[in-house]
Automatic annotation (TrEMBL), chains A, B:
Keywords: Coiled coil, Ethylene biosynthesis, Fruit ripening, Lyase, Pyridoxal phosphate, S-adenosyl-L-methionine
Protein origin, superkingdom: Eukaryota
Coiled coil region boundaries: 173-200
Cofactors named for this entry: pyridoxal 5'-phosphate
Annotated EC: 4.4.1.14
Pathway: Alkene biosynthesis; ethylene biosynthesis via S-adenosyl-L-methionine; ethylene from S-adenosyl-L-methionine: step 1/2
Family: Belongs to the class-I pyridoxal-phosphate-dependent aminotransferase family.
Listed name of the protein: 1-aminocyclopropane-1-carboxylate synthase
Domain Aminotransferase class I/classII large: 46-425
GO biological process: ethylene biosynthetic process; fruit ripening
CDD domains (UniProt xref): AAT_like
Amino acid sequence: MEFKSSQILSKLATSDQHAENSPYFDGWKAYDNDPFHPTQNPHGVIQMGLAENQLSFDLIEEWIKKNPVASICTREGVDAFKDIAIFQDYHGLPEFRKAVAKFMGKVRGRRVTFDPDRVVMAGGATGANELIMFCLADPGDAFLVPSPYYPAFDRDLSWRTGVKLLPVACESSNNFQITLQALEEAYKNAQKANIKVKGLIMANPSNPLGTTMDKDTLKSLVTFINEKKIHLVCDEIYAATIFRAPNFISISEIIEEVECNRDLIHIVYSLSKDMGLPGFRVGIVYSYNDTVVNCGRKMSSFGLVSSQTQYLLASMLSDEEFIEMFLKESSKRLGNRHKIFTRGLVEGGIKCLESNAGLFCWMDLRPLLKETTFEGEMELWRVIINDVKLNVSPGSSFHCDEPGWFRVCFANMDDETMQIALRRIRTFVGERKEMDAQVNNKRWKKTLRLSFSSRMYYETSLSPHMIPSISTSSFTTCSCDLNIYLKVII
Amino acid sequence: MEFKSSQILSKLATSDQHAENSPYFDGWKAYDNDPFHPTQNPHGVIQMGLAENQLSFDLIEEWIKKNPVASICTREGVDAFKDIAIFQDYHGLPEFRKAVAKFMGKVRGRRVTFDPDRVVMAGGATGANELIMFCLADPGDAFLVPSPYYPAFDRDLSWRTGVKLLPVACESSNNFQITLQALEEAYKNAQKANIKVKGLIMANPSNPLGTTMDKDTLKSLVTFINEKKIHLVCDEIYAATIFRAPNFISISEIIEEVECNRDLIHIVYSLSKDMGLPGFRVGIVYSYNDTVVNCGRKMSSFGLVSSQTQYLLASMLSDEEFIEMFLKESSKRLGNRHKIFTRGLVEGGIKCLESNAGLFCWMDLRPLLKETTFEGEMELWRVIINDVKLNVSPGSSFHCDEPGWFRVCFANMDDETMQIALRRIRTFVGERKEMDAQVNNKRWKKTLRLSFSSRMYYETSLSPHMIPSISTSSFTTCSCDLNIYLKVII
C-alpha cells in the first residue's frame, strides 16, 4: 500500500525547521562515526564541539561516596525510595527548589537572593528555553537575539512554539559586544516588516563567545526592553564557569539598581554546565512574573526532572561546604585549562577572542580562509573535521555574521587528548601555510599540474587510517566537496 | 508602574486552556490542604483521586538493596557516574531502550516483540502524549477520543499543540464500550464542521473504566482508521495492571492479524503505572512510522529521562527473573486489593463497572444523585470531598456523558487506609439514604423548617475537625454551594 507520509503527519514532522541539519549537529555525527580513543582509535575525530564540563567529576564522585544517604538507591537511602519514586508534583521537591535557589545565589557571589517559589522546573535548558517562549509569545511573534548565538536556540525557542528569532548582528570590530544601535535597528526593521517583537533573549556568559556583559551594557539592555515593554530573557547557564576577571554580573543584580517592570525579566538556568551534569536534565526558569511562574509550572509537567535526581541534587546542593569548594576548584581548573589551551593555539599562530568564561574559545581562523565567505568557512570546516579530525563548530552555525570564526570546546576531554588536539591544529596550520606558499608559487609560475590526482595527495599526506573514514563518511556531500577542494588547492 | 500582564504574555499563559481547573485537579488541592494521616490527621481527606500503584514497592526496594551496582550513586556503581552524568543523547542509553522494548514485550505476554530502535523517549506519558500530537497533527486538527477519558488529556494533547479533542460518547447501557456507529457519527460531524480529523486516540486498558478492549473491537478500530487514513494512538500505560481475565490484547498484536498501514499505528507507554514509578518520568512513544520515530527523537530533547534514572531502570528491567516475579506479584496484589475494595463497596450498596485492569474502579453513584444532572453530580462530589473527606473524581471531569459516575483509586494506599475509606463511604451512603427518607417524609408532610440553619447541621453531623477545613477551604465556591446544598436537603 503506497502512502505519502507527508500527507498524514504534521508540518513539524515533515519540515526541517528543527534546525538539526546545521554543521553544528553534523560535526557530532562525524565524531560518532569515528570517535577518537587514545589506544583503540588514535586517529579518530576528537570531539571539540561539545560544551561539557568534565574537569571536576572526581569531586562529585567523592561526595557521592561520602553521602550514600543522598541516594534512594543505596541501602542507606532506600527507605526514601517509595516516597520519592511516586513524587511527581510539578512544583518540584521543596528541598530541591530551595537548594537550587540557594545555589543560584551562591554562583552569583551571594550578591542577590532567589526565591524558591519562583524556581520553575523544566527538562534541561532545552526545555526551559521552550517553556519560557510558550509563556511569552504566540506563534509568529518574534524575539531579538544577539548573534553569534547557540545553534540549538532555533530548535529550542522556535521549532514547536512558532516563535521567530531575529538575529542582532554583533561584530568582531568591537569584540562582538552588543550595541544599542544594532538593537534599535533590528527592532525597527521588525516593526516595518509588521513582526511583533515580544522580547530579547541573550546568553550571558555568552555561548559561543565565552565573554560576559559589563554592567553598563546590562543596564542599557534593561532600559531598552523596559521602554519597549518587551521581555528580557537571560540565559545564565554558564554563570559558574567564570575563570578569571571580570566577574559575572547577573541580570538579577542589575534589576536591583535599574528601575524596570520586573514582570518583564526572566532567567533560564541549568545544572548542565555549571555542575557538569547534562544527563540529569535539570532546567530552570526563574521568572519575576507571577503569571509566568504559574503557567510555567503547569508546563513543567512535560519535562519534570526525575525525582530520583531531584532528591540527590537537593542533598548535594545543600551541602554548603562542598558547593563552596566545588565552585572554587571548578573555576580554577577551567582557568588552567583555558590558559594551556589558548597558549597552545597561540604557539600555532591562532588567536581567540579574549574571554573569561565558558567551556570554549571563539577561534579566529580568518587567516586560514581561502576566501572570506561562508563557503570558504565551510570548506575550511570540512578539512578540519575530515582531515585534521577535530570536531569544531563553524561560526555560521552560530549565525555569526562574519566568516572565519570557530567555536572550540576545551573542557570535555583530559589533558592528553587536549594536547593531541593542539598538536593536530598546529600541524595543520603549519601545513596549510606551507601549501599556501606552494600554491602561490605555482600560480605565479602558472604551471597547473592537472594530472596530479587528489587521491595521491590523500595517500601521501594523511594517515592510512583516515582514508576509509572519508570514503565511508556519512556526508557524501562533504567527501565530494573535499575532493573538489583538494583539486583546487593542489 | 501599571501593566496588564495579559498584553505582554502569550495566549497560552493568559487563558485557561490548560484544563487544570476541573474537579479532577481541584480534588487534589483539597487533599493537599488537609491530607489524611492515620495518627496525625485521622479526619483528613483520603486521596482516592490518584492512580498510583503503591502495592509492590517492597519488591523494588529489595531489588535495589541487592543490586548496588545498578546505581551510579553507590560506592559499587560510582565508577559509571561520569559517563552517565554527561549522557544526554536523545536516543537514550542503548541498554535502556533495549530493556524497555523487552519489558514491553513481556508485559504483553511475549506474544509480540518490540524493536528498541522504535522506542522514543519522552517526559512521562504526559510528554509522550504531547510529543505524538506534535508529530501527527497541526493546530486546529482534531483527534477522536472515546469518552469517558483521562482528564489531563486536554492538557497533554491539546494545550500547547492546538489540537482539538472530539469526544466519542460511550454509554453505560453497553458498559461504556466504544461502538463503530458512534465513531462514524463523530467523524461525520467533524467533517460537516470542516474539522480535519487526524486520528483516534484511546486508552487500553481504559482510564477511568479499568476495562480492556476485546479483539473484535480492536480489529474494527484498526479497519476504521485504515479506511479513513487517520492515525490510531493507543495509550497502553496500564498494560501490566491486568489482575484477572480477560487478558490484555495490545494493538501490536492486532496489527499482526489485520492488514493495515502500519505508518498509522503508535503506542504511548510509561513506567508510571505498570512499575509504579511516576516520579521517574519515563514516557515512551513506540511508533511503527519511521518519520514519526525520527521526528519524535528530536522532540525527546525537551523531555529526556534523567540518565541516572535510565541507568538504574536499564539494569532493573533487564533482570528477567526479577521482572517476571514482579509482574506476577503486582498483578496478584492488585487483584486482591480490587476484590476487597469492591466487596466493601457492595456491602455499602455501591456497584462498580465490571473491570479487569487499572488502579481504580468506575463507581456508579447514580442512586445517590439528588437530580440526574451534572449539577447533581457536582453537588454530590462536593459532599464527598468536603464532608466524607474522600477525594474521588466525578465523571464529568472525565468527559463522561452520563452524570453519577465517579472514579475511585484503590492502589495508592495501605490496607488500613482503604478500610477507613470504605467505612466512610458506607457510613455516608447509610446516612444519605436515611436523610433521603427524612426529606421525603418532610416533603410529604410539607413542614419546611426554614429556621434550621445549615451551621447547626454542620456542628451536629460533622466532627469538630471538619468545620475549619470547610471554612478555610480553598474553594470558596464549593463552600458556598455546600451551604446551598445543605439548605436544600434539610
